[in-house]
Amino acid sequence: MKRLVFALAALLLAASSFAQVTVKDAWIRATVPQQKTTGIFMQLKSAKDMKLVAARTPVARVVEIHQMMMHDDMMHMHAVDSLALPAGREVALQPGGFHLMLLELKEQVHAGTKVPVTLVLEGPDGRQETLDLQATARVLNSAHH
Ligand SMILES: [Cu+2]
């Protein structure tokens, strides 16, 4: 019985640490037929120091964490290993900055549809947890953004 109580406590702790990362306004850029790449954007806020180390979605074979920046008057983007989520600070994944890059899309992403996304987050102790969310497909530069 004692062991069961400990197991339950561990489960509750795991569940509450999930809730310490909040996601706001997750969206995915809608695509046209034959398009093989797109991006996912959102606001992330973690109550404790965490980092985003990976992500996956059923609509793409490959998901990378990308950073976009100006270099020699040109926009460049490159993959990064992780994105730091400092405690209490809102981190934006947005066009022109960090984003989740979807490569080898399996299907067209139509505006208005919801796409499941799983984030893999890692704490300072190296322990990983996952966070499931839904990203709504929008056309970039649409009036309501
Ligand atoms: Cu990219």
From TrEMBL:
Coiled coil: none annotated. It holds the Pfam family PCuAC. Gene3D superfamilies: PCu(A)C copper chaperone. InterPro entries: LpqE-like, Lxx211020-like, PCuAC_sf. The keyword Amino-acid biosynthesis does not apply. Residues 1-19 form the signal peptide. It comes from the Bacteria. Keywords: Signal. This is Copper chaperone PCu(A)C. It comes from Ramlibacter monticola.
